[in-house]
């Protein structure tokens, strides 16, 4: 039972999951639908390996589901639907044994042998990858296979309904197609009884009473009649999407901005079939390092597994939660910022009231129960520490962390311990190969000598704020009109990079004595990269 006070707050909350949930609540009139629950659906096309965008859609839909459950006691289901009966139209760029896979073009994905050799089909392999990473994040979902729905007869009534409304569906789709495509288009794709391929051929006859369609075999020229039921036909995807909405009575499904027209056409088909299209919204696409849309078949962008090597699950969840209607570049360099932003949001939870909780991403990420562990330093600072120490193991970082935050250990700060491990991995793979140290000019050399002298006169337990003040004062004394130039010099000379942390915080973490030694090495011309 939803807490009445939280329900009232949820009904007024402005975070986007609550805005979407209110649309769903309005749809059902806050009454239990005839089927006894609300269905939220996400779709996956297993023609390529699951990518991070697939995860994003499930995560975002889950956020809407949780927001809805705060507003209503109507039961919900989240269906992860795999279109695994689709014909393989091209060989993905990122799979092995491509020559073998190429022999099975146009076959249903669940009939294409697995190029990885681990499952009974390519579709089964990709479905398993999808379920594995959804399970890893603890999503509550029901996996549904298109192949099973078609073959079992679950879609039979809906397919016969499409056959009865064949002309209306054609009337919706034909104006959206190029002239040449109009000549061959049909919502039904027969599965050839001779080859097993999913055929894209014109339909010559529709026999509503018999529940069959007739087409000409493209290889033999023979007229062939097949039922539209029992897995003997597959629907073209826009018609398939609409049929699925109606057959499963889906209430909510979001989609990428590139599918705006598809949503429009599928919604029109759903209405023509006597159904009601689901609520939803169009999110912006993720882009790779070159600004191109990420793709399952190309394997560009980041995988979930890659992100989790360099950042905790909470950071990828935050990236998905924030600004879903804005196109975002999805590459390795976004991870540190996402991690530190998550730490910042999570640290504010205990100080916030219930209203602010509903706007805090950390609250949504943890389903209203964020952990209370204190994180005494951020990911960016750990990265810089790893860079100065040339760390190959997180235990090196803990030697500094325990001095910076007395009492902190890997055992009582497990999240911080994970961050330390991620920082070492990120440093080794991305920071270390790109470090470039430079020699200070005369003005910078004098300032560095002054800074080393100033630090020698300070206690080893001086706090970060006082250390930062001293760094500022040194820069002012040496005539840096723009103190940004002073800090940039510190980063380039001492850290081998153009950007860096608050120097006071870094010195406090690395140690006053160690920082003096670092400056002296730079002034002596020693190789700081060694």
Give a description of the structure.
The chain has 530 residues and is mainly alpha-helical. It folds into three domains: 4-283, Rossmann fold (3-Layer(aba) Sandwich); 379-434; 442-523, Arc Repressor Mutant, subunit A (Orthogonal Bundle). It has 24 helices and twelve strands. It has helices at residues 4-12, 16-28, 52-71, 98-102, 122-136, 146-152, 156-164, 166-173, 179-182, 237-248, 260-272, 304-310, 313-321, 335-348, 354-357, 361-365, 379-389, 394-404, 414-431, 442-456, 464-477, 483-495, 503-510, 512-523; strands at residues 38-44, 76-82, 142-145, 188-190, 203-207, 212-216, 223-227, 233-235, 255-256, 282-283, 286-287, 328-329. It has a three-stranded parallel beta sheet. Strands 5-6-7 form a three-stranded antiparallel beta sheet, with no helix packed on it. The N and C termini lie far apart (61 Å). The model has no long low-confidence stretch (mean pLDDT 93).
Properties at a glance:
48% helix, three-stranded antiparallel sheet, 530 residues, 3 domains, mainly alpha, single chain, Arc Repressor Mutant, subunit A, 9% strand, Rossmann fold, three-stranded parallel sheet, elongated
CATH domain topology of the largest domain: Rossmann fold
How many strand units? 12
Q: What general outline do the C-alpha atoms trace?
A: elongated
Low-confidence stretches: none
């Amino acid at each position: 039972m939803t807490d009445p006070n939280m329900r009232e707050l949820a009904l007024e909350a402005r975070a986007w999951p609550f805005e979407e949930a209110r649309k769903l609540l309005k749809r059902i009139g806050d009454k239990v639908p005839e089927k006894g629950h609300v269905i939220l659906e996400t779709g996956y096309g297993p023609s390529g390996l699951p990518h991070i965008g697939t995860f994003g859609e499930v995560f975002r839909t889950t956020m809407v589901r949780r927001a809805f459950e705060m507003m209503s006691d109507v039961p919900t289901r989240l269906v992860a639907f795999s279109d695994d009966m689709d014909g393989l139209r091209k060989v993905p760029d990122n799979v092995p044994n491509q020559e073998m896979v190429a022999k099975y073009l146009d076959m249903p994905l669940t009939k294409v042998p697995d190029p990885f050799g681990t499952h009974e089909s390519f579709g089964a392999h990709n479905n398993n990858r999808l379920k594995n990473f959804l399970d890893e994040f603890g999503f509550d979902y029901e996996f549904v296979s298109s192949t099973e729905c078609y073959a079992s007869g679950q879609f039979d009534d809906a397919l016969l309904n499409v056959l009865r409304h064949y002309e209306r569906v054609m009337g919706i789709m034909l104006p959206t197609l190029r002239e040449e495509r109009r000549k061959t288009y049909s919502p039904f794709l027969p599965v050839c009884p001779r080859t097993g391929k999913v055929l894209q051929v014109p339909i010559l006859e529709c026999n509503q009473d018999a529940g069959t369609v007739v087409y000409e075999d493209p290889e033999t020229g023979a007229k062939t009649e097949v039922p539209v039921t029992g897995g003997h036909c597959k629907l073209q995807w826009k018609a398939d999407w609409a049929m699925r909405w109606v057959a499963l009575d889906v209430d909510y499904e979001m989609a990428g901005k590139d599918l705006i027209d598809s949503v429009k056409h599928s919604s029109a088909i759903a209405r023509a079939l006597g159904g009601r299209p689901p609520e939803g919204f169009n999110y912006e696409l993720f882009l790779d390092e070159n600004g191109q849309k990420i793709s399952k078949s190309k394997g560009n962008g980041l995988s979930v597994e890659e992100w989790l090597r360099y950042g905790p699950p909470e950071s990828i969840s935050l990236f998905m939660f924030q600004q879903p209607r804005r196109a975002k570049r999805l590459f390795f360099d976004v991870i540190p910022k996402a991690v530190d932003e998550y730490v910042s949001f999570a640290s504010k939870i205990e100080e916030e009231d219930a209203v602010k909780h509903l706007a805090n991403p950390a609250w949504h990420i943890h389903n209203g129960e964020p952990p209370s562990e204190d994180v005494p330093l951020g990911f960016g600072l750990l990265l810089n520490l790893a860079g100065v120490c040339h760390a190959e193991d997180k235990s090196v970082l803990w030697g500094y962390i325990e001095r910076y935050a007395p009492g902190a250990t890997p055992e009582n700060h497990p999240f911080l311990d994970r961050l330390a491990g991620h920082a070492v991995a990120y440093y080794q793979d991305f920071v270390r190969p790109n470090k470039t140290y430079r020699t200070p000019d005369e003005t910078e050399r004098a300032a560095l000598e002054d800074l080393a002298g100033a630090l020698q006169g300070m206690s080893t337990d001086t706090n970060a704020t006082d250390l930062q003040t001293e760094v500022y004062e040194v820069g002012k004394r040496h005539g840096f009109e723009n103190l940004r130039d002073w800090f940039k010099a510190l980063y380039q000379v001492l850290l081998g990079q153009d950007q860096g942390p608050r120097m006071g915080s870094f010195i406090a973490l690395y140690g006053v004595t160690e920082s003096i030694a670092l400056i002296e090495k730079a002034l002596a011309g020693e190789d700081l990269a060694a």
